[in-house]
């Protein structure tokens, strides 16, 4: 049991605060023999890092990661991989006015009552900055999954505030600052975000993440079900308030005769299951959607209290994402990859000897 | 790491199959000194058990639980509590036609490929029957939470298939076979379920579970966030495909100025957070919603394959819930209680010495 | 984290008390496909059970184990295996005089202060009776290790009280009631134990357990070293006060030029390492020795206090082993087997893909 | 489950190799509110560090630790504490001759077969250098235990090679380079070590570690017994081959009437239990002894094989401790402190509400 670790066999133990000297993690349980260098991790870190467009926080962080251990002559050794990212662009004085006050919708209040002490600078431990080491760890998982199984993990936005983003193609995602899989909505998103920023407010977002190529059989009946662990991982990302697998909340109004995905050797007929049945992967695409709440640090005045219990009006300065969901795409990918590698290792621990003659049903297509 | 256990400090290790001799669990970590007897567990088991109305499976199980250990002279001793429920009404022959075939939407296919062996009788390990021991364990958690903190955990249906169930009052829930918090929809639900059953099909459902009285401060920043552990627990219930905390997916279109719950010493102004901020309880009601897929075992013919890879048409006999979501109410309550007691114990492990002078914000009301 | 569980991937969760209705455990993580029936477990249970000679406790327990789950048509399914043993021969009134007093050297005093409640009957949870489910679980591990790797786990006594037992052959162990690997000392042991029993006192014992056939490579550098996990498992057996691997305490006066086991393709030249280097198995025999303290429940009067803090003289009635070490042989075997299967599964989780051309050094002989 | 972590609630996750850029750890679960700065950690790091006398390795490392997180304004926040120590004095070329050969008694051979890759430089992950982060983590535990309970953890040598070191006083330990609690043997130790070093050989050692002030009630019945976790922690220190609690192997020849420590309100009459009964602390001193094998890297020629399976003669250059046991004293103290804080937290998780009127028996004296 460790509050700050994720995973059972591929374990990531995270440390750091937004304005401390450094953030990082220990990645324990990576199989030996994986070619790995810092550039492998930097690509996803760069996708997540702040300051890349006017629509995200203007804090400037290179998020350069240093591999401290676990790699020898360019290859993982099986020993734990220490990862370090130095913080560089702290402006702690921006947070002077919230030293003694609690932002509505923020962890300020809960941290204070839990710990009796709080690093208020930049959100401290509750900052989305804590996701950078997870993205680095997730990049290791992604590489291993790709090399061993050809698995591809990718994500995109489905909605930003009021603007829905119909899925067009994965190729579009990297071509705009919104991780939008649709070129036609980019202008609307620009306008929407510009107006939002100007207003001093923030907005929520919808996000989708998918893994293709996952073989049938990963997961467990209960309670470390593949989908349960995915839900845990996604809900442990800052600001996530809802998670769906496959048909998700849509299944409430489905009939069993519609929801159950028919099988033939030509493939599954549909993917309402989202790639998981009974907690175990079906071989179809793993399909996950989530809802991300609006950033709680906004410039608009809100009613709250301070440490003395007195009523205060809080306006938040400092640099914040007006829609924290945007940068969550590489984070959600990382989290999904981390759950998958963990279950890949658990599966071969328990079932390495299993041989079945039954042919595997092809994935078919996901209608998402 | 244990596939079949739930929790970190209050750990429930589950065993059993639908048509095996018995099901049960070991509850490890229950604090000593809690008055406990079998009747304490039976109440919730009776709410969950099959055969109580024509709208659920007609399998007859008394679900009588035996406490095998951990209780001495009516009080818990701190030792693990062994719980045993004998299976009594198996009709394994009803499953003869699926020995070699895979039901669409069912775990048949994934179990087979994972383990190379499958107890097909009544769904084996993937049966909803496995939730009975969790309900018994959850009843222990509920009692401790109530006695130590006055916490109340309760649940109700929000929708069954196409029939929405507006919330009216908690008192209604026990008065109808649908766990519906609204007397006026009961007739519609009766008709809907009767027609569904006659059609041989099944339907999905929406469910809400709430905990009141949870103090501020339970949970962790990452990754054992209170909400992440709740998501994990709920998604580990059979057939759950989506989980929301507080505003859930509704937060996508909320602005930060709306979503962030304002605070005063009169109470929180709203509860969009669902009682959790930064992974830690706020002192407000914990509010969770989930989606439950339609039962995959239906009488209607579906296309599938068998173990030899040949195309087959599967019709499922045996006794099944046409809407497995109905009986999920006590299960979801149990799971929430189990997560809460686990975090209660973790909290006092880490923060037993913390004293804060800041007054606590009253819960306010949840607009759900 | 679970107080009452052992193992990481092959997890045994134990429950029960000496005079409660039943004892048992849940074995989670057993690979599917292992042929298993109750007779497989009963052999070792019978070796451990009480009442088999005048030199052990006269409590009569058949220790008949029931498999409640996880086995279908004679083969493990990968689901957790529930094991149940009903207690049959309790005589709780024998313990009437220690309801309020603490036996010197016994867990009475520590349980009372920890939990504020204590099942005093037969030692409750601290009874050696709790090892029966471990022996049953260990028998599963032994069978899997034997079938998959040809591993043999066996143990014997090295000393009972003042009587040393020089190793002669493994064949002798089953031929006398002392698990003595030497026929010539049996008469001395009979006399020694008869005199001890008559005196009302108890004695300590030395025990050795060995595993042959363990492949090179199981274990981890730190902290789940194979030897560290063995030490944990052995010290978690009731009454064990010391554990050695290989040369053990003898290594204090060894030089490096003597202790380090030389290698050639003819085999290791010695086995001072006891089969573990750097926390990882060498392919040699795993060699473990341990010390077991004398039973604390004796008929001789001892000074102590009662719950009120008053001085009392405690004499223990009830039925006890005058040398609890004797029956510890099958227990220690079970514990070693449980650690080995756990590391076998962890090893293939992390290193399933590793291929090395270097030839393996044969085990050579263990000079113990 | 994490190979490289220690503890359940106070969890230390270690990373690094002897000749990599840095070593360190993440300390998760430290209660908030503990005053902490780097100087608190440096004292024990300096006791462990190499190069402090001619009797230990001559590698020069300042072992300056940097606190990367979890401390704010001089006080722990409850967030994970990242600790970093840069390696400074690597001489990797010294290890050129063992790139392809396996040192007898060293982890070279087992790592190679396990992982298929090995960082040979300075022993890589198997180096005693890995204990530095544990000493730093242990210093946090020591400080908390001292401030909360007045617990003192201390260690000393009992034997170095052939030279026994009778216990005289704890005050002597810091006054000589051997952690010897006896001034009169220091000259003998100097001569013994000088001769040993000259011979190119190495020797084993005996070590004792003690904790005073531990309250009654910490630990669990099974399997996370306090003594079992201590045995695990000690055996996970490099080169430890044996662990004893209290009377240890001496209990084999004790009678029950001698071993069981009598109690009165004046104190325990003896401490054969070593402060633990039934896996739970008695309130007496925790007494642990261990055996440390001779360093396997010696200058004397030894027979071995290389990666191709060919016979080779290995002589080890590089800088090594002729008796690795000497510097193990602060390491063993750290490990004991880590186990104790972990159980302190577990105890209050489960038993925070327990109140017992029975007076506590004073510790009495430990005759060691």
Automatic annotation (TrEMBL), chains A, B, C, D:
Classification via SUPFAM superfamilies: Chorismate synthase, AroC (SSF103263)
Pathway: Metabolic intermediate biosynthesis; chorismate biosynthesis; chorismate from D-erythrose 4-phosphate and phosphoenolpyruvate: step 7/7
Cofactor(s) the protein needs: FMNH2
CDD domains according to UniProt: Chorismate_synthase (cd07304)
Record-linked InterPro entries: Chorismate_synth (IPR000453), Chorismate_synth_AroC_sf (IPR035904), Chorismate_synthase_CS (IPR020541)
Binding site for FMN: 125-127, 238-239, 278, 293-297, 319
Sorted UniProt keywords: Amino-acid biosynthesis, Aromatic amino acid biosynthesis, FAD, Flavoprotein, FMN, Lyase, NADP
E.C. numbers: 4.2.3.5
Pfam families given in the database record: Chorismate_synt
Enzymatic reactions: 5-O-(1-carboxyvinyl)-3-phosphoshikimate = chorismate + phosphate
Residue numbers binding NADP(+): 48, 54
PROSITE patterns: CHORISMATE_SYNTHASE_1, CHORISMATE_SYNTHASE_2, CHORISMATE_SYNTHASE_3
Cofactor: how and how many bound: Reduced FMN (FMNH(2)).
Gene3D superfamilies associated with the record: Chorismate synthase AroC
Family note: Belongs to the chorismate synthase family.
Quaternary assembly: Homotetramer.
Function of the molecule: This reaction introduces a second double bond into the aromatic ring system.
Protein known as: Chorismate synthase
Organism expressing this protein natively: Limnobacter litoralis
Origin organism lineage: Bacteria, Pseudomonadati, Pseudomonadota, Betaproteobacteria, Burkholderiales
Gene name, Swiss-Prot/TrEMBL: aroC
């Amino acid at each position: 049991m460790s509050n700050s670790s994720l995973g059972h066999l591929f374990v990531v133990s995270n440390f750091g605060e937004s304005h401390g000297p450094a953030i990082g993690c220990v990645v324990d349980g990576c199989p030996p023999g994986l070619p790995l260098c810092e550039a492998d991790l930097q690509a996803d870190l760069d996708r997540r890092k702040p300051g890349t467009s006017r629509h995200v926080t203007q804090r400037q962080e290179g998020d350069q990661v240093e591999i401290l251990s676990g790699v020898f002559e360019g290859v993982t050794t099986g020993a734990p991989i220490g990862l370090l990212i130095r913080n560089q662009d702290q402006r702690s004085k921006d947070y002077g006015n919230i030293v003694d006050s609690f932002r509505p919708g923020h962890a300020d209040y809960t941290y204070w009552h839990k710990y009796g002490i709080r690093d208020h600078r930049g959100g401290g431990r509750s900052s989305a900055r804590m996701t950078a080491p997870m993205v680095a760890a997730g990049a290791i998982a992604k590489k291993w999954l790709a090399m061993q199984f050809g698995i591809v993990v990718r994500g995109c936005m489905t909605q930003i505030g009021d603007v829905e983003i119909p899925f067009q193609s994965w190729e579009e995602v990297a071509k705009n600052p919104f991780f939008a899989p649709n070129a036609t909505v980019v202008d609307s998103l620009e306008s929407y975000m510009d107006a939002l920023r100007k207003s001093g407010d923030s907005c929520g977002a919808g996000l989708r993440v998918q893994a293709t190529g996952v073989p049938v059989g990963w997961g467990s009946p209960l309670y470390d079900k593949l989908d349960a662990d995915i839900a845990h991982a996604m809900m442990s990302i800052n600001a996530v308030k809802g998670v769906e697998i496959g048909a998700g909340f849509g299944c409430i109004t489905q009939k069993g005769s519609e929801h159950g995905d028919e099988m033939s050797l030509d493939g599954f007929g549909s993917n309402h299951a989202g790639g998981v049945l009974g907690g175990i992967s079906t071989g179809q695409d793993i399909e996950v959607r989530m809802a991300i709440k609006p950033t709680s640090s906004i410039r608009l005045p809100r009613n709250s209290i301070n440490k003395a219990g007195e009523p205060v009006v809080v306006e938040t300065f400092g640099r914040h994402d007006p829609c924290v969901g945007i940068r969550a795409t590489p984070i959600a990918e990382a989290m999904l990859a981390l759950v998958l590698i963990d279950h890949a290792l658990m599966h071969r621990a328990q079932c390495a000897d299993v041989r079945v003659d039954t042919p595997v049903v092809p994935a078919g297509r996901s209608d998402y």
